[in-house]
Amino acid sequence: xSRPPDAAPIDVLLVEDNQDDVELTxxxxxxxxxxxxxxxxxxxxxxxxxLFRRGEYQNVPTPDLILLDLNLPKVDGRxxxxxxxxxxxxxxxxxxxxxxxxxxxxVARSYRLHANAYVxxxxxxxxxxxxxxxxxxxWLEIVRLP
Amino acid sequence: xxxxxAVPIEILLVEDNPGDVRLTREALKDAxxxxxxxxxxxxxxxxxxxxxxxxYAAVPRPDLILLDLNLPKKNGRxxLEEIKQDxxxxxxxxVILTTxxxxxxIVESYRLHANAYVxxxxxxxxxLKVxxxxxxxWLEIVKLSHP
Lengths: 146, 147
Prior knowledge:
The complex is a heterodimer of chains A (146) and B (147). Chain A has one domain: Response regulator (Rossmann fold, 3-Layer(aba) Sandwich), CATH 3.40.50. Chain A is built from five helices and five strands; from the N terminus they run βαβαβαβαβα. Chain A has helices at 19-30, 44-51, 77-86, 104-112, 125-142, and strands spanning 10-15, 36-41, 65-68, 95-99, 117-120. A five-stranded parallel sheet of chain A has the order 2-1-3-4-5, with helices on both faces. The two termini of chain A are 13 Å apart. Helix content of chain B is 38%, strand content 17%. Chain B is built from five helices and five strands. Chain B has helices spanning 18-29, 43-50, 76-84, 103-111, 124-141, and strands at residues 9-14, 35-40, 64-67, 94-98, 116-119. A five-stranded parallel sheet of chain B has the order 2-1-3-4-5, sandwiched between helices. The two termini of chain B are 19 Å apart.
């Protein structure tokens, strides 16, 4: 089930433009039992540069897990999800959509585009923290990542 | 976060080992979120359930599928592939729950769009912890699709 303690840290790419949400997520994942490094992309274009190792991102690792907001500046999260899942190297990386959108259309469409899970952001920061903790517990401790 | 739904979450467990079925049922019974567990014992039965064929004409469409890989009649990889290629079913999250630790199975399952891959611990307490964590994440935190 779990990774050996000496395993390399899990690389998480967080694609999120809201500073408060970034800080809450970093805080929650730092407290996780499994060692991880969170890389933050603040908009859709930056996320794609990171994932496709363009420009200043030539030497970044391929993330083991991606947390993706849907409503992002420059390139929309739905488009990023589609590009990731179409790509041979990136397609297998679990993508968890973390968004404020509750629209059934976004939920169904994200799953059809092969998002691995869809989580809506609670407005209450304490509840949001609990959600990110649960994401960390399940995806870092329980799941076997590819 | 998901508001606790008034209707129970329908879970389809595809598992041929009666011991694992019993344990999973036990672990989900105490879940905070109301759920109904349906069990298919082989791959053919799982697809008949999902497509409401034969005696399954009146069953609900599952909100979540827990799928073993090594199954009689039709193996879990084929079941996974068929579900994810079916427009009426592809939105349903599938958590692979298997004893296989093989890297090939892990990579292949994600390539076939499994939503998560979890290995079954042999230890009873660990098994309950794993099902508890699946329950916490998929029933309490995730927003499932209800088209």
